[in-house]
Amino acid sequence: MRFRVFAAFLLVTVLFPVAQAGEPPRVVTADGAITEIVYRLGLESLLVGVDTTSGYPEQTESLPKVGYLRALPFEGVLALKPDLLITSEQAAPEDSLERLGRAGVQVEKLPLARSPEAVLERIVSVGRLLGEEDRAESLASELRSKIKHIQQASLARGNQPKVLFILAAGNHSVMLAGEGTAASALLDTVGAVNAVSGIQGYKPANREAILASRPDAIVIAESTPGQFDIRSWSEVERLEAWQSGHRLVADSMMLLGFGPRLPDAMAAVNDVLSAPSNVAANDP
Amino acid sequence: MIRDAAGRIGYSPSLLVALSAAVLVALVSITSGAYPLALADILSVFTGQEATDPVASMVLLEVRMPRFLLGFLVGAVLAVSGALLQGLFRNPLADPGLIGVSAGASLAAIAVIVLGNTWLGGWLAMTGEWALPIAAFLGGSGTVLLAWRIANRSGQTAVATLLLAGIAINAVAGAATGLLTFYATDEELRSLTFWTMGSLGHAGWDDLLVGAPFMLLALLATPWLARPLDAFLLGESVVGHLGYRTDTIKKAAILVVGLGVGAAVAVSGLIGFVGLVVPHLVRQMVGASHRMVLPLSILVGGTLLVAADSLARVVVAPAELPIGLMMALIGGPFFLALLLRTKVI
What we know:
The structure holds two protein chains of two kinds.
Chain A: H1 2-13, E1 27-30, H2 32-40, E2 47-50, H3 74-79, E3 84-88, H4 94-102, E4 106-110, H5 116-129, H6 133-157, E5 162-168, E6 174-177, H7 182-189, E7 193-194, E8 202-204, H8 207-213, E9 217-222, H9 234-238, H10 240-243, E10 247-251, H11 252-256, H12 262-273
Parallel strand pairs in A: 1-2, 1-3, 3-4, 5-7, 5-9, 9-10
Antiparallel strand pairs in A: 5-6, 6-8
Chain B: H1 13-31, H2 39-46, H3 56-89, H4 101-115, H5 121-127, H6 131-151, E1 152-153, E2 156-157, H7 159-183, H8 186-197, H9 205-221, H10 223-232, H11 236-241, H12 246-268, H13 274-286, H14 290-314, H15 323-342
Antiparallel strand pairs in B: 1-2
Helix pairs in contact in B: 1-3, 1-14, 2-3, 3-9, 3-12, 3-13, 3-14, 4-6, 4-7, 4-8, 4-12, 6-7, 6-12, 9-12, 10-14, 13-14, 13-15, 14-15
Protein backbone atom coordinates (compact mmCIF):
# COMPACT_ATOMS: atom_id res chain seq x y z
CA MET A 1 0.00 0.00 0.00
CA ARG A 2 2.64 2.40 1.16
CA PHE A 3 4.81 1.32 -1.69
CA ARG A 4 2.05 2.04 -4.18
CA VAL A 5 1.66 5.56 -2.89
CA PHE A 6 5.38 5.97 -3.25
CA ALA A 7 5.34 4.57 -6.78
CA ALA A 8 2.58 6.97 -7.74
CA PHE A 9 4.60 9.77 -6.26
CA LEU A 10 7.59 8.73 -8.30
CA LEU A 11 5.53 8.67 -11.47
CA VAL A 12 4.31 12.18 -10.83
CA THR A 13 7.74 13.58 -10.23
CA VAL A 14 9.66 11.42 -12.64
CA LEU A 15 11.90 13.12 -15.12
CA PHE A 16 10.92 16.65 -14.32
CA PRO A 17 14.01 18.80 -14.11
CA VAL A 18 14.49 20.42 -10.72
CA ALA A 19 16.36 23.41 -12.08
CA GLN A 20 13.51 25.85 -12.39
CA ALA A 21 14.25 28.22 -9.54
CA GLY A 22 17.07 30.71 -9.68
CA GLU A 23 19.37 28.86 -7.34
CA PRO A 24 21.18 25.80 -8.65
CA PRO A 25 19.70 22.57 -7.24
CA ARG A 26 21.54 20.71 -4.48
CA VAL A 27 22.07 17.16 -5.66
CA VAL A 28 23.01 13.91 -3.92
CA THR A 29 23.95 10.92 -6.06
CA ALA A 30 23.88 7.41 -4.68
CA ASP A 31 25.41 5.14 -7.32
CA GLY A 32 28.99 5.13 -8.54
CA ALA A 33 28.08 5.21 -12.23
CA ILE A 34 25.57 8.03 -11.80
CA THR A 35 28.15 10.09 -9.92
CA GLU A 36 30.59 9.51 -12.77
CA ILE A 37 27.99 10.76 -15.23
CA VAL A 38 27.51 13.98 -13.26
CA TYR A 39 31.27 14.58 -13.32
CA ARG A 40 31.52 13.78 -17.03
CA LEU A 41 28.78 16.32 -17.69
CA GLY A 42 30.84 18.87 -15.76
CA LEU A 43 27.99 19.39 -13.29
CA GLU A 44 29.87 18.32 -10.17
CA SER A 45 29.38 21.78 -8.63
CA LEU A 46 25.76 20.77 -8.02
CA LEU A 47 26.77 17.78 -5.89
CA VAL A 48 26.47 18.14 -2.13
CA GLY A 49 26.99 14.47 -1.29
CA VAL A 50 27.57 11.01 -2.76
CA ASP A 51 27.34 7.45 -1.49
CA THR A 52 30.21 5.11 -0.72
CA THR A 53 30.06 3.40 -4.12
CA SER A 54 31.08 6.71 -5.72
CA GLY A 55 34.86 6.54 -5.68
CA TYR A 56 35.62 7.88 -9.14
CA PRO A 57 36.82 10.45 -10.05
CA GLU A 58 39.09 11.18 -7.11
CA GLN A 59 37.43 14.54 -6.41
CA THR A 60 34.48 12.60 -4.91
CA GLU A 61 36.71 12.11 -1.87
CA SER A 62 36.07 15.67 -0.76
CA LEU A 63 32.27 15.28 -0.78
CA PRO A 64 30.28 14.09 2.25
CA LYS A 65 29.51 10.37 2.03
CA VAL A 66 25.94 9.43 2.91
CA GLY A 67 26.70 5.75 3.37
CA TYR A 68 25.97 2.79 1.18
CA LEU A 69 23.31 3.03 -1.48
CA ARG A 70 21.46 -0.02 -0.17
CA ALA A 71 21.36 1.44 3.34
CA LEU A 72 20.70 5.12 2.79
CA PRO A 73 20.06 6.87 6.10
CA PHE A 74 17.07 9.21 5.98
CA GLU A 75 18.51 11.83 8.29
CA GLY A 76 21.97 11.64 6.79
CA VAL A 77 20.70 12.42 3.30
CA LEU A 78 18.26 15.05 4.54
CA ALA A 79 21.02 16.77 6.53
CA LEU A 80 22.65 17.75 3.24
CA LYS A 81 19.41 19.56 2.34
CA PRO A 82 19.31 18.20 -1.20
CA ASP A 83 16.66 19.14 -3.73
CA LEU A 84 17.29 16.00 -5.71
CA LEU A 85 18.53 12.50 -4.97
CA ILE A 86 19.53 10.52 -8.03
CA THR A 87 20.05 6.86 -7.38
CA SER A 88 19.48 3.50 -9.01
CA GLU A 89 16.71 1.01 -8.46
CA GLN A 90 19.03 -0.84 -6.08
CA ALA A 91 18.62 1.94 -3.52
CA ALA A 92 17.22 0.92 -0.15
CA PRO A 93 15.62 0.95 2.36
CA GLU A 94 12.27 1.86 0.89
CA ASP A 95 11.23 3.63 4.11
CA SER A 96 14.09 6.13 3.90
CA LEU A 97 13.37 6.96 0.27
CA GLU A 98 9.68 7.36 0.88
CA ARG A 99 10.29 9.66 3.85
CA LEU A 100 12.79 11.70 1.85
CA GLY A 101 10.14 12.15 -0.80
CA ARG A 102 7.69 13.42 1.78
CA ALA A 103 10.32 15.75 3.23
CA GLY A 104 10.46 17.50 -0.13
CA VAL A 105 13.43 15.78 -1.74
CA GLN A 106 12.85 14.72 -5.33
CA VAL A 107 13.90 11.05 -5.35
CA GLU A 108 14.77 9.59 -8.75
CA LYS A 109 15.55 5.91 -9.13
CA LEU A 110 17.07 5.15 -12.48
CA PRO A 111 16.87 1.62 -13.86
CA LEU A 112 19.97 -0.58 -13.77
CA ALA A 113 22.12 -0.22 -16.85
CA ARG A 114 23.66 -3.42 -18.16
CA SER A 115 23.89 -2.67 -21.86
CA PRO A 116 25.48 0.14 -23.91
CA GLU A 117 22.03 1.47 -24.86
CA ALA A 118 20.89 1.57 -21.25
CA VAL A 119 24.08 3.41 -20.26
CA LEU A 120 23.43 6.07 -22.87
CA GLU A 121 19.81 6.39 -21.78
CA ARG A 122 20.97 6.82 -18.22
CA ILE A 123 23.28 9.64 -19.22
CA VAL A 124 20.43 11.44 -20.97
CA SER A 125 18.13 10.91 -17.95
CA VAL A 126 20.71 12.36 -15.57
CA GLY A 127 21.26 15.31 -17.92
CA ARG A 128 17.53 15.94 -18.14
CA LEU A 129 17.12 15.83 -14.36
CA LEU A 130 19.88 18.37 -13.98
CA GLY A 131 18.51 20.60 -16.72
CA GLU A 132 21.41 19.97 -19.10
CA GLU A 133 19.84 17.64 -21.62
CA ASP A 134 21.78 18.99 -24.59
CA ARG A 135 25.11 18.45 -22.93
CA ALA A 136 24.02 14.92 -22.00
CA GLU A 137 22.85 14.19 -25.54
CA SER A 138 26.16 15.23 -26.99
CA LEU A 139 28.09 13.14 -24.45
CA ALA A 140 25.82 10.22 -25.28
CA SER A 141 26.37 10.53 -28.99
CA GLU A 142 30.12 10.84 -28.48
CA LEU A 143 30.10 7.63 -26.45
CA ARG A 144 27.73 5.99 -28.93
CA SER A 145 30.14 6.43 -31.79
CA LYS A 146 33.02 5.08 -29.69
CA ILE A 147 30.97 2.05 -28.73
CA LYS A 148 29.95 1.49 -32.32
CA HIS A 149 33.55 1.62 -33.39
CA ILE A 150 34.57 -0.98 -30.81
CA GLN A 151 31.65 -3.23 -31.62
CA GLN A 152 32.49 -3.12 -35.30
CA ALA A 153 36.02 -4.17 -34.45
CA SER A 154 34.72 -7.01 -32.33
CA LEU A 155 32.37 -8.15 -35.11
CA ALA A 156 35.26 -8.10 -37.56
CA ARG A 157 37.02 -10.61 -35.32
CA GLY A 158 34.42 -13.09 -36.44
CA ASN A 159 34.55 -15.49 -33.47
CA GLN A 160 33.22 -15.63 -29.94
CA PRO A 161 36.23 -15.95 -27.66
CA LYS A 162 35.77 -17.50 -24.22
CA VAL A 163 36.81 -15.20 -21.41
CA LEU A 164 37.60 -16.09 -17.82
CA PHE A 165 36.46 -13.17 -15.70
CA ILE A 166 37.93 -12.89 -12.21
CA LEU A 167 36.87 -10.38 -9.57
CA ALA A 168 39.49 -9.63 -6.92
CA ALA A 169 37.91 -7.69 -4.10
CA GLY A 170 39.19 -7.53 -0.56
CA ASN A 171 41.96 -9.50 0.98
CA HIS A 172 42.37 -12.96 -0.53
CA SER A 173 38.87 -12.82 -1.95
CA VAL A 174 39.04 -13.99 -5.51
CA MET A 175 35.79 -14.71 -7.26
CA LEU A 176 34.80 -16.08 -10.63
CA ALA A 177 32.11 -14.15 -12.43
CA GLY A 178 29.26 -16.37 -13.52
CA GLU A 179 26.02 -15.75 -15.33
CA GLY A 180 23.80 -12.79 -14.61
CA THR A 181 26.67 -10.54 -13.59
CA ALA A 182 27.85 -7.17 -14.85
CA ALA A 183 30.97 -9.04 -15.97
CA SER A 184 28.91 -11.30 -18.23
CA ALA A 185 27.07 -8.27 -19.57
CA LEU A 186 30.38 -6.57 -20.38
CA LEU A 187 31.60 -9.63 -22.26
CA ASP A 188 28.36 -9.59 -24.25
CA THR A 189 29.01 -6.07 -25.46
CA VAL A 190 32.21 -7.12 -27.22
CA GLY A 191 30.93 -10.40 -28.58
CA ALA A 192 32.73 -12.61 -26.08
CA VAL A 193 31.28 -15.37 -23.92
CA ASN A 194 31.90 -16.31 -20.32
CA ALA A 195 34.28 -19.26 -20.06
CA VAL A 196 32.69 -20.30 -16.80
CA SER A 197 29.22 -21.67 -17.26
CA GLY A 198 26.83 -23.03 -14.70
CA ILE A 199 27.43 -20.59 -11.88
CA GLN A 200 25.20 -17.68 -11.02
CA GLY A 201 26.67 -14.46 -9.68
CA TYR A 202 30.16 -14.19 -8.23
CA LYS A 203 31.38 -17.33 -6.52
CA PRO A 204 34.67 -18.08 -4.77
CA ALA A 205 37.22 -19.24 -7.31
CA ASN A 206 37.72 -22.97 -7.57
CA ARG A 207 41.23 -23.72 -8.78
CA GLU A 208 40.18 -26.72 -10.86
CA ALA A 209 37.36 -24.78 -12.46
CA ILE A 210 39.92 -22.21 -13.55
CA LEU A 211 41.97 -24.88 -15.30
CA ALA A 212 38.89 -26.50 -16.77
CA SER A 213 37.56 -23.26 -18.23
CA ARG A 214 40.31 -23.17 -20.91
CA PRO A 215 39.65 -19.53 -21.79
CA ASP A 216 40.87 -17.64 -24.83
CA ALA A 217 41.46 -14.58 -22.65
CA ILE A 218 41.51 -13.60 -18.98
CA VAL A 219 40.10 -10.43 -17.49
CA ILE A 220 40.80 -9.59 -13.86
CA ALA A 221 38.88 -6.80 -12.17
CA GLU A 222 40.53 -5.40 -9.05
CA SER A 223 38.74 -3.20 -6.55
CA THR A 224 42.09 -1.66 -5.60
CA PRO A 225 45.19 -1.71 -7.82
CA GLY A 226 47.57 -4.58 -7.20
CA GLN A 227 45.01 -6.64 -5.35
CA PHE A 228 45.31 -9.69 -7.54
CA ASP A 229 48.59 -11.43 -6.89
CA ILE A 230 49.34 -13.79 -9.75
CA ARG A 231 51.99 -15.58 -7.64
CA SER A 232 49.29 -17.13 -5.46
CA TRP A 233 47.26 -18.18 -8.49
CA SER A 234 49.58 -20.45 -10.42
CA GLU A 235 46.56 -22.04 -12.14
CA VAL A 236 45.80 -18.76 -13.82
CA GLU A 237 49.43 -18.29 -14.74
CA ARG A 238 49.49 -21.75 -16.28
CA LEU A 239 46.57 -20.99 -18.59
CA GLU A 240 47.53 -20.63 -22.19
CA ALA A 241 45.64 -17.35 -22.43
CA TRP A 242 47.72 -15.83 -19.64
CA GLN A 243 51.02 -16.89 -21.17
CA SER A 244 50.06 -15.72 -24.62
CA GLY A 245 49.30 -12.26 -23.27
CA HIS A 246 45.52 -12.40 -23.72
CA ARG A 247 45.08 -10.90 -20.32
CA LEU A 248 43.84 -7.72 -18.73
CA VAL A 249 44.08 -6.53 -15.15
CA ALA A 250 42.07 -3.37 -14.54
CA ASP A 251 39.98 -1.44 -12.05
CA SER A 252 36.67 -3.10 -11.26
CA MET A 253 34.62 0.10 -11.19
CA MET A 254 35.88 0.99 -14.66
CA LEU A 255 35.15 -2.50 -16.01
CA LEU A 256 31.90 -3.24 -14.23
CA GLY A 257 30.41 0.13 -13.38
CA PHE A 258 28.49 0.54 -16.65
CA GLY A 259 28.96 4.28 -16.45
CA PRO A 260 30.46 6.77 -18.88
CA ARG A 261 33.72 4.79 -18.91
CA LEU A 262 31.98 1.86 -20.60
CA PRO A 263 33.67 2.49 -23.97
CA ASP A 264 37.06 2.39 -22.21
CA ALA A 265 36.13 -0.88 -20.56
CA MET A 266 34.90 -2.37 -23.85
CA ALA A 267 38.00 -1.24 -25.68
CA ALA A 268 40.29 -2.66 -22.99
CA VAL A 269 38.57 -6.05 -23.05
CA ASN A 270 38.34 -6.10 -26.83
CA ASP A 271 42.05 -5.39 -27.11
CA VAL A 272 43.04 -8.49 -25.18
CA LEU A 273 40.64 -10.62 -27.20
CA SER A 274 42.50 -9.71 -30.34
CA ALA A 275 45.94 -9.40 -28.79
CA PRO A 276 48.70 -10.39 -31.20
CA SER A 277 49.06 -14.12 -31.18
CA ASN A 278 52.79 -13.97 -31.81
CA VAL A 279 53.26 -13.58 -28.04
CA ALA A 280 52.15 -17.18 -27.93
CA ALA A 281 55.45 -18.22 -29.47
CA ASN A 282 56.79 -19.25 -26.07
CA ASP A 283 53.97 -21.76 -25.63
CA PRO A 284 55.03 -25.36 -25.25
CA MET B 1 8.54 -1.46 41.17
CA ILE B 2 11.93 -2.23 42.56
CA ARG B 3 12.46 -4.12 45.78
CA ASP B 4 15.80 -4.93 47.29
CA ALA B 5 16.84 -8.39 48.44
CA ALA B 6 14.87 -8.04 51.65
CA GLY B 7 11.74 -7.09 49.77
CA ARG B 8 11.73 -3.41 50.67
CA ILE B 9 10.69 -0.97 48.05
CA GLY B 10 13.46 1.51 47.91
CA TYR B 11 15.71 3.86 46.10
CA SER B 12 19.20 2.68 45.62
CA PRO B 13 21.80 5.14 44.41
CA SER B 14 22.45 2.83 41.45
CA LEU B 15 18.83 3.04 40.44
CA LEU B 16 18.93 6.82 40.52
CA VAL B 17 22.13 6.85 38.48
CA ALA B 18 20.65 4.44 35.94
CA LEU B 19 17.42 6.41 35.71
CA SER B 20 19.15 9.73 35.16
CA ALA B 21 21.45 8.14 32.60
CA ALA B 22 18.40 6.81 30.78
CA VAL B 23 16.76 10.22 30.73
CA LEU B 24 19.95 11.91 29.60
CA VAL B 25 20.49 9.40 26.81
CA ALA B 26 16.87 9.76 25.74
CA LEU B 27 17.30 13.51 25.43
CA VAL B 28 20.56 13.15 23.51
CA SER B 29 19.04 10.57 21.20
CA ILE B 30 16.04 12.75 20.39
CA THR B 31 17.97 15.98 19.94
CA SER B 32 20.98 14.73 18.00
CA GLY B 33 21.25 13.30 14.55
CA ALA B 34 22.69 13.99 11.15
CA TYR B 35 20.00 16.54 10.40
CA PRO B 36 20.65 19.75 12.33
CA LEU B 37 17.60 20.94 14.26
CA ALA B 38 17.42 24.07 16.36
CA LEU B 39 16.45 23.50 19.99
CA ALA B 40 13.61 25.98 19.56
CA ASP B 41 12.21 23.85 16.73
CA ILE B 42 12.42 20.70 18.81
CA LEU B 43 10.55 22.37 21.63
CA SER B 44 7.87 23.71 19.30
CA VAL B 45 7.29 20.27 17.79
CA PHE B 46 6.82 18.68 21.21
CA THR B 47 4.59 21.47 22.45
CA GLY B 48 2.46 21.26 19.34
CA GLN B 49 3.48 24.56 17.81
CA GLU B 50 4.54 25.30 14.27
CA ALA B 51 8.29 24.80 13.80
CA THR B 52 10.29 27.10 11.53
CA ASP B 53 11.85 24.13 9.77
CA PRO B 54 9.07 22.38 7.84
CA VAL B 55 10.65 18.93 8.13
CA ALA B 56 11.39 19.23 11.85
CA SER B 57 8.25 17.46 12.98
CA MET B 58 8.83 14.67 10.48
CA VAL B 59 12.43 14.15 11.57
CA LEU B 60 11.46 14.13 15.23
CA LEU B 61 8.14 12.33 15.29
CA GLU B 62 8.53 9.89 12.41
CA VAL B 63 12.21 9.10 12.59
CA ARG B 64 13.87 9.87 15.90
CA MET B 65 10.99 9.03 18.26
CA PRO B 66 10.22 5.55 16.91
CA ARG B 67 13.93 4.87 16.60
CA PHE B 68 14.54 5.81 20.21
CA LEU B 69 11.61 3.74 21.46
CA LEU B 70 12.53 0.74 19.34
CA GLY B 71 16.16 0.97 20.39
CA PHE B 72 15.26 1.16 24.05
CA LEU B 73 12.85 -1.77 23.83
CA VAL B 74 15.29 -3.95 21.91
CA GLY B 75 18.12 -3.16 24.31
CA ALA B 76 15.89 -3.77 27.31
CA VAL B 77 14.62 -7.09 25.99
CA LEU B 78 18.06 -8.38 25.01
CA ALA B 79 19.56 -7.40 28.36
CA VAL B 80 16.78 -8.84 30.47
CA SER B 81 16.79 -12.01 28.38
CA GLY B 82 20.47 -12.36 29.08
CA ALA B 83 19.83 -11.88 32.79
CA LEU B 84 17.03 -14.46 32.76
CA LEU B 85 19.13 -17.05 30.97
CA GLN B 86 22.19 -16.45 33.11
CA GLY B 87 20.00 -16.94 36.16
CA LEU B 88 18.29 -20.00 34.76
CA PHE B 89 21.46 -21.73 33.61
CA ARG B 90 23.50 -20.35 36.51
CA ASN B 91 26.11 -19.66 33.87
CA PRO B 92 27.72 -16.25 33.44
CA LEU B 93 28.29 -16.92 29.73
CA ALA B 94 24.65 -17.52 28.83
CA ASP B 95 23.09 -15.03 26.44
CA PRO B 96 20.09 -14.99 24.13
CA GLY B 97 22.21 -16.44 21.36
CA LEU B 98 22.91 -19.52 23.38
CA ILE B 99 19.57 -21.28 23.16
CA GLY B 100 19.47 -20.72 19.41
CA VAL B 101 16.88 -17.98 19.34
CA SER B 102 19.00 -15.40 17.50
CA ALA B 103 20.34 -17.97 15.06
CA GLY B 104 16.86 -19.27 14.32
CA ALA B 105 15.43 -15.81 13.80
CA SER B 106 18.19 -14.69 11.48
CA LEU B 107 18.11 -17.97 9.55
CA ALA B 108 14.41 -17.45 8.87
CA ALA B 109 14.98 -13.84 7.84
CA ILE B 110 17.84 -14.76 5.53
CA ALA B 111 15.79 -17.57 4.02
CA VAL B 112 13.10 -15.05 3.14
CA ILE B 113 15.67 -12.72 1.56
CA VAL B 114 17.38 -15.42 -0.50
CA LEU B 115 14.49 -17.73 -1.33
CA GLY B 116 11.79 -15.07 -1.52
CA ASN B 117 11.77 -15.15 -5.31
CA THR B 118 11.68 -18.92 -5.62
CA TRP B 119 10.61 -21.38 -2.96
CA LEU B 120 9.14 -18.96 -0.50
CA GLY B 121 7.14 -16.94 -3.04
CA GLY B 122 3.88 -18.05 -1.41
CA TRP B 123 5.03 -16.80 1.97
CA LEU B 124 5.83 -13.40 0.51
CA ALA B 125 2.47 -13.20 -1.22
CA MET B 126 0.73 -14.10 2.01
CA THR B 127 2.52 -11.74 4.39
CA GLY B 128 3.42 -8.84 2.12
CA GLU B 129 5.80 -6.33 3.60
CA TRP B 130 5.72 -8.09 6.98
CA ALA B 131 7.30 -11.21 5.49
CA LEU B 132 10.69 -10.62 7.07
CA PRO B 133 9.78 -9.68 10.66
CA ILE B 134 7.13 -12.36 10.94
CA ALA B 135 9.47 -15.01 9.59
CA ALA B 136 12.22 -13.92 11.99
CA PHE B 137 9.84 -14.06 14.89
CA LEU B 138 8.59 -17.52 13.96
CA GLY B 139 12.15 -18.72 13.38
CA GLY B 140 13.26 -17.43 16.76
CA SER B 141 10.43 -18.88 18.77
CA GLY B 142 10.52 -22.08 16.71
CA THR B 143 14.13 -22.81 17.59
CA VAL B 144 13.56 -22.09 21.27
CA LEU B 145 10.63 -24.44 21.23
CA LEU B 146 12.70 -27.10 19.49
CA ALA B 147 15.58 -26.80 21.96
CA TRP B 148 13.13 -26.92 24.79
CA ARG B 149 11.32 -30.00 23.42
CA ILE B 150 14.63 -31.78 23.05
CA ALA B 151 15.58 -30.96 26.64
CA ASN B 152 12.17 -31.94 27.96
CA ARG B 153 12.08 -35.50 29.26
CA SER B 154 8.96 -36.79 30.98
CA GLY B 155 7.85 -33.36 32.05
CA GLN B 156 11.26 -32.31 33.36
CA THR B 157 13.42 -29.76 31.61
CA ALA B 158 17.09 -30.65 31.79
CA VAL B 159 18.91 -27.34 31.73
CA ALA B 160 22.25 -28.77 30.65
CA THR B 161 20.60 -30.60 27.76
CA LEU B 162 18.84 -27.39 26.77
CA LEU B 163 22.17 -25.62 26.63
CA LEU B 164 23.76 -28.35 24.52
CA ALA B 165 20.72 -28.54 22.25
CA GLY B 166 20.98 -24.78 21.81
CA ILE B 167 24.62 -25.08 20.79
CA ALA B 168 23.81 -27.82 18.29
CA ILE B 169 20.89 -25.87 16.86
CA ASN B 170 23.14 -22.83 16.60
CA ALA B 171 25.64 -24.84 14.60
CA VAL B 172 23.00 -26.21 12.22
CA ALA B 173 21.31 -22.82 11.79
CA GLY B 174 24.71 -21.25 11.21
CA ALA B 175 25.53 -23.77 8.52
CA ALA B 176 22.14 -23.30 6.85
CA THR B 177 22.68 -19.55 6.93
CA GLY B 178 26.10 -20.03 5.36
CA LEU B 179 24.62 -22.20 2.64
CA LEU B 180 21.98 -19.59 1.85
CA THR B 181 24.67 -16.92 1.81
CA PHE B 182 26.60 -18.97 -0.71
CA TYR B 183 23.60 -19.17 -3.04
CA ALA B 184 22.62 -15.53 -2.52
CA THR B 185 23.07 -13.14 -5.40
CA ASP B 186 25.21 -10.09 -4.98
CA GLU B 187 22.18 -7.99 -4.25
CA GLU B 188 20.69 -10.34 -1.67
CA LEU B 189 24.07 -10.54 0.00
CA ARG B 190 23.94 -6.84 0.76
CA SER B 191 20.54 -7.14 2.43
CA LEU B 192 21.91 -9.93 4.58
CA THR B 193 24.37 -7.62 6.28
CA PHE B 194 21.45 -5.92 7.97
CA TRP B 195 20.65 -9.12 9.79
CA THR B 196 24.17 -9.97 10.69
CA MET B 197 25.28 -6.54 11.88
CA GLY B 198 21.99 -5.21 13.20
CA SER B 199 20.46 -1.85 12.45
CA LEU B 200 17.84 0.53 13.70
CA GLY B 201 18.21 2.72 10.63
CA HIS B 202 14.88 1.80 9.11
CA ALA B 203 12.92 2.09 12.36
CA GLY B 204 9.45 3.55 12.02
CA TRP B 205 6.16 3.33 13.85
CA ASP B 206 5.20 0.28 11.82
CA ASP B 207 8.22 -1.64 13.14
CA LEU B 208 7.15 -0.72 16.64
CA LEU B 209 3.66 -1.90 15.89
CA VAL B 210 4.98 -5.33 14.92
CA GLY B 211 7.63 -5.76 17.57
CA ALA B 212 6.56 -3.75 20.57
CA PRO B 213 3.59 -5.85 21.75
CA PHE B 214 5.72 -9.01 22.02
CA MET B 215 8.63 -7.19 23.58
CA LEU B 216 6.43 -5.37 26.11
CA LEU B 217 4.73 -8.63 27.00
CA ALA B 218 8.12 -10.19 27.64
CA LEU B 219 9.22 -7.25 29.77
CA LEU B 220 6.01 -7.22 31.79
CA ALA B 221 6.39 -10.89 32.64
CA THR B 222 9.87 -10.55 34.09
CA PRO B 223 9.08 -9.20 37.61
CA TRP B 224 7.16 -12.38 38.26
CA LEU B 225 10.31 -14.42 37.56
CA ALA B 226 12.63 -12.48 39.85
CA ARG B 227 12.10 -14.30 43.15
CA PRO B 228 12.08 -17.82 41.67
CA LEU B 229 15.31 -17.03 39.81
CA ASP B 230 16.88 -15.98 43.09
CA ALA B 231 15.97 -19.46 44.31
CA PHE B 232 17.73 -20.91 41.25
CA LEU B 233 20.94 -19.30 42.46
CA LEU B 234 20.89 -21.75 45.33
CA GLY B 235 20.75 -24.72 42.98
CA GLU B 236 17.93 -26.28 41.02
CA SER B 237 16.92 -28.77 43.70
CA VAL B 238 16.39 -25.97 46.19
CA VAL B 239 13.85 -24.22 43.97
CA GLY B 240 11.18 -26.83 44.59
CA HIS B 241 11.89 -26.88 48.31
CA LEU B 242 11.27 -23.15 48.45
CA GLY B 243 7.78 -23.72 47.09
CA TYR B 244 8.20 -22.80 43.41
CA ARG B 245 7.15 -25.05 40.60
CA THR B 246 10.57 -25.49 39.01
CA ASP B 247 9.38 -26.57 35.62
CA THR B 248 6.80 -23.81 35.24
CA ILE B 249 9.50 -21.25 36.01
CA LYS B 250 11.81 -22.72 33.40
CA LYS B 251 9.08 -22.80 30.79
CA ALA B 252 8.04 -19.25 31.55
CA ALA B 253 11.60 -17.92 31.37
CA ILE B 254 12.26 -19.65 28.06
CA LEU B 255 8.97 -18.46 26.62
CA VAL B 256 9.69 -14.88 27.67
CA VAL B 257 13.12 -15.02 26.05
CA GLY B 258 11.81 -16.62 22.86
CA LEU B 259 9.03 -14.08 22.55
CA GLY B 260 11.14 -11.04 23.33
CA VAL B 261 14.31 -11.89 21.44
CA GLY B 262 12.39 -13.26 18.45
CA ALA B 263 10.61 -9.93 18.14
CA ALA B 264 13.79 -7.94 18.79
CA VAL B 265 15.75 -9.74 16.08
CA ALA B 266 12.79 -9.41 13.75
CA VAL B 267 12.85 -5.61 13.92
CA SER B 268 16.53 -4.86 14.39
CA GLY B 269 18.62 -7.79 13.21
CA LEU B 270 21.33 -9.41 15.29
CA ILE B 271 22.68 -7.07 17.95
CA GLY B 272 25.13 -8.93 20.13
CA PHE B 273 26.86 -8.04 23.33
CA VAL B 274 23.94 -6.35 25.17
CA GLY B 275 22.47 -9.61 26.39
CA LEU B 276 25.76 -10.97 27.62
CA VAL B 277 27.29 -7.96 29.26
CA VAL B 278 24.51 -5.79 30.66
CA PRO B 279 23.48 -8.27 33.38
CA HIS B 280 27.10 -8.42 34.53
CA LEU B 281 27.32 -4.65 34.61
CA VAL B 282 24.15 -4.53 36.67
CA ARG B 283 25.35 -7.18 39.10
CA GLN B 284 28.50 -5.18 39.65
CA MET B 285 26.27 -2.29 40.62
CA VAL B 286 23.58 -3.90 42.76
CA GLY B 287 24.52 -7.47 43.57
CA ALA B 288 22.98 -10.71 42.38
CA SER B 289 19.35 -10.45 43.52
CA HIS B 290 17.14 -10.74 40.48
CA ARG B 291 14.66 -8.33 41.96
CA MET B 292 17.26 -5.67 41.32
CA VAL B 293 19.06 -7.26 38.39
CA LEU B 294 16.03 -7.71 36.15
CA PRO B 295 14.55 -4.19 36.29
CA LEU B 296 17.96 -2.56 36.18
CA SER B 297 18.96 -4.73 33.21
CA ILE B 298 15.91 -3.42 31.40
CA LEU B 299 16.92 0.15 32.17
CA VAL B 300 20.63 -0.19 31.51
CA GLY B 301 20.17 -2.37 28.40
CA GLY B 302 17.78 0.11 26.83
CA THR B 303 20.01 3.04 27.75
CA LEU B 304 23.16 1.42 26.44
CA LEU B 305 21.61 0.49 23.12
CA VAL B 306 20.12 3.94 22.59
CA ALA B 307 23.46 5.52 23.49
CA ALA B 308 25.29 3.30 21.03
CA ASP B 309 22.73 4.05 18.34
CA SER B 310 23.01 7.80 18.91
CA LEU B 311 26.77 7.55 18.49
CA ALA B 312 26.44 5.24 15.48
CA ARG B 313 24.47 7.83 13.58
CA VAL B 314 26.61 10.80 14.53
CA VAL B 315 30.27 9.73 14.30
CA VAL B 316 30.38 9.21 10.54
CA ALA B 317 27.44 11.48 9.68
CA PRO B 318 25.85 11.79 7.20
CA ALA B 319 26.44 8.02 6.97
CA GLU B 320 25.71 5.55 9.79
CA LEU B 321 27.75 2.81 11.42
CA PRO B 322 26.15 -0.57 12.10
CA ILE B 323 24.80 -0.54 15.65
CA GLY B 324 26.23 -3.93 16.55
CA LEU B 325 29.68 -2.65 15.80
CA MET B 326 29.19 0.47 17.90
CA MET B 327 27.79 -1.59 20.73
CA ALA B 328 30.88 -3.76 20.98
CA LEU B 329 33.19 -0.78 20.56
CA ILE B 330 31.68 1.09 23.51
CA GLY B 331 30.69 -1.79 25.72
CA GLY B 332 33.75 -4.01 25.30
CA PRO B 333 36.39 -1.69 26.74
CA PHE B 334 33.99 -0.43 29.38
CA PHE B 335 33.31 -3.94 30.56
CA LEU B 336 37.00 -4.83 30.50
CA ALA B 337 37.78 -1.81 32.64
CA LEU B 338 35.16 -2.89 35.10
CA LEU B 339 36.60 -6.41 35.23
CA LEU B 340 40.08 -5.10 35.82
CA ARG B 341 38.87 -2.90 38.63
CA THR B 342 37.05 -5.62 40.54
CA LYS B 343 38.63 -8.81 39.18
CA VAL B 344 35.44 -10.81 39.68
CA ILE B 345 32.60 -11.82 37.46
